[in-house]
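Internal ticket - ligand job 303, NAP:
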Amino acid sequence: MNETTKNTTRTVAVLGLGIMGAAMARNLLRAGLDVRVWNRDPAKTGPLAEAGAHAAATPAEAVEGADVVLTMLYDAAAVTEVIRQAAAGIRPGTVWVQSTTVGVHDAGALAELAREVGLELVEAPVSGTREPAEAGQLLVIAAGAPAVRDTVAPVLDAIGARTTWTGEDAAAGTATRLKLVVNSWVIAASNATGEILALAGALGVEPQQFLDLIEGGGLDLPFLRGKAGLILGDTLDPASFAVDTSLKDARLILAAAEEHGIRLDGTAAAAARLERVAARGRSKQDMAAAYYASTPEDGGSGD
Ligand code: NAP
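stdout (structure tokens):
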């Protein structure tokens, strides 16, 4: 956090302690903020409580006295459900940093929900996965009223490397639109990585030969090396960005594309590959597991 920020934000409620929410809550604690946490599966609050957070039994308890409420849940339906459960504890005018990745239409519906329960909405989806989240190095994409930006600054500074403001009206969904564009790139690059490795394997080409050939050139990409490492090293658990979550995002992207009259054949194909491996018990593995969609059978974990 910027030490020079004169700010009255002291208490942050974090609703959702999955891969991303737990890491964000830890960085809020490290920044010296009072953190109140809630998660549907209460077992996930234990490690945060040990690190100094107040573990709340309900969303309403978590948001009591909070200056900022941060949601990092699976999707818009979960966000709506949890914010409604929190409503009784909300102090009118509390700022809501909504970081869950949602669809273009969800942004407007969540802004309406914010008005209903007395929250000031800032949409704040993030780019970056488990490791940048743990390091407080996420790229925050934010939209919201200038009047509340000082209030959210200590929170966004704690979780991210920088914040890109896309607009002043959270209801317009400008941050969500940019986030979906970013994720269409993530999904395309991850899918391409899996297909390249499957093709190399089928043709008897050593994957390392390919990686060495492109090293340092225009075709090289740290993301490719990261996801290829997970596939080749068979380290798809624990996920950084799970198959089911990236499939949810692929569907949000396809819905937005269809509504705006464009075809995204590559995203549709990537979604179909994620669906196939999810059906084979790989839904909680890293999205790089879509590699296995290239083979007719695989040794999925069957979870
Ligand atoms: P995750 O590990 O699966 O966590 C999902 C969270 O949502 C968990 O706390 C889960 O609770 C909660 N949840 C799901 N359905 C719920 C419901 N109906 N009611 C209450 N809580 C519910 O997912 P994640 O990777 O942290 O992702 C969280 C969000 O961030 C998603 O929108 C994702 O698209 C976005 N995102 C992810 C990444 C990434 O790389 N992982 C990067 C940027 C953005 P339980 O623990 O009880 O299941």
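Auto-summary: The pocket of NAP is lined by residues 16-21, 39-41, 44, 72-75, 78, 81-82, 100-101, 126, 129, 240-242, 245, 249 (CB under 6 Å). The longest strand covers residues 160-167.
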